[in-house]
Amino acid sequence: MLSLLPFSCKGKNPVEEAGDTLIDVYEGSKVESQQVTLKSIQNAINIYHAQYGRYPESLDEISSLMDTPIDIDMYEYNPENGEVRIKHEID
């Protein structure tokens, strides 16, 4: 009876495979976008440091230097040395 089933339990059907591919592409582009934003944030921090001779107290202070709004909750920032990282990279 089991041999009459249309799909084998061993692999995924084409719709599942296509869905998995789309999810992988989406996740990859999300990571790339976060990396680009991270570089923009670091550049804004460097500009701020050059203008004021100190690092910003928080990422809120550099928001005016950014072209687009940032979700500051996604980043961990150290005002002592100006380092910023994506939080999931630290965990």
Strand order across the biggest sheet? 1-2
The counted number of beta strands is 2
Q: What form results from the Cα inertia axes?
A: elongated
Distance between the termini: 49 Å
Strand content: 5-15%
How many DSSP helices?
A: 2
Helix content bin: 40-55%
Q: SSE string, helix = H, strand = E? A: HEEH
Spans of at least 5 consecutive residues with low confidence: none
Largest sheet: 2 strands, antiparallel
Radius of gyration equals 22 Å
Mean pLDDT: 80
Structural classification: mainly alpha
Task: Offer a few descriptive terms.
91 residues, 2 helices, 2 strands, 47% helix
What can you see in these coordinates?
- With 91 residues, the protein is mostly helical.
- It has a domain of 63 residues.
- Strands 1-2 form a two-stranded antiparallel ribbon.
- Strand 1 and strand 2 form a beta hairpin.
- It is elongated, with a radius of gyration of 22 Å.
- It starts with 13 loop residues before the first helix and ends with a helix.
